[in-house]
Write a structure and sequence with these properties.
This protein is of the alpha/beta class and 388 residues long. The protein has two domains: 89 residues, Nonspecific Lipid-transfer Protein, Chain A (2-Layer Sandwich); 272 residues, Rossmann fold (3-Layer(aba) Sandwich). Helices cover 43% and strands 18% of the residues. Strands 7-6-5-8-9-11-10 form a seven-stranded mixed β-sheet, with helices on both faces. The mean pLDDT is 95.
Amino acid sequence: MNLTEKEFVKFLSKFDEHPFDVKIGDEVSHIGKGESEFTVIFHKIPSMKELLTSTSIALGEAYMDGKLEIEGDLYHALNMFLGQMGKFSTDKKALKKLIFSSLTKKNQQKEVSSHYDIGNDFYKMWLDETMSYSCGYFKHPEDTLYQAQVQKVERILKKLYLKEGITLCDIGCGWGYLLIEAAKKYGIKGVGITLSKEQKKKFEERIKENHLEDQLEVRLMDYRDLPESGFKFDRVVSVGMLEHVGRDNYELFMESVKSIMNPGGLFLLHYISALQEHPGDAWVKKYIFPGGVVPSLREIINIAGDYQFYTLDVESLRRHYNKTLLCWNANFQKHKDEVREMFGERFIRMWELYLCACAATFMNGIIDLDQILFTNGVNNDLPMTRWY
């Protein structure tokens, strides 16, 4: 082993909470105490400069390019390794443009489209029939992904106390399943907004298929345009959209929601959270969610109070998201040949790394999933106890 390789192994040796082996050529180095949990094979090692600039990008790109292989289960290895992400190196100055990207409407439209407009045919392969691209709710260990997504939507709709004639806005509506269920089961009238042309197209198809043209509509719209829209709603829901807003715009987001709500209305916010405020992972920002930032629970609660949003309920679905991601990855693995034909091998390795890494970070508590129910000002007409 040459000097560069020894220096590389020394860098990895700090990630020693779970024992693993590092194989470079014919040389195997053991890190940590005890029997190895997994083996990482390097066909070509990243440079120290790359590792110190961003450990996440250096190792992520090595995996994407086939320079790094995992001997054993990828999720298991990541679950053992990523609990130590606090030891990763990130040069925020060198990566300033990547980590702190522009929050303009034009740039955020571009960032959202880069992920959600990959194509509906791609997402159909590994999402369930509801086309829900957010955390499911598993009532029982044996629940299917479809059952979990149906149950998640049912849970949200119950929390919103819906009834016929109530108006509901879904900010970041995805492919529209939540609004469709709300319209069919509760007789609400709703508007969904999204920045994804592909999602809008599919949602419009679903509205026609379900004959809900008199109840639902979907608009290609930025949340920042809501105050001038003239809309007023009894209920607002946002599922998995806040992560795209950016830390400097959280107050603007809450202000925009406030502007379209009737007094005493309910607002359910479902989003990936973290214990502390950090700018986000560099690899995820570069390849998966450009501009994505994960808020902390405390900062959202704090901002909500400034806009007279009263907190009624907070629920963590962290382990539900871990299981959701593992289900997505299992589905993705079944369609790898089709995805390879569409996007190539590097995309496959990138996407499975994304799904497994996210599952691991939820399991390790690096990120969480919070559902917060707010009321717009005081509402004393709701039940005094939990209803679910």
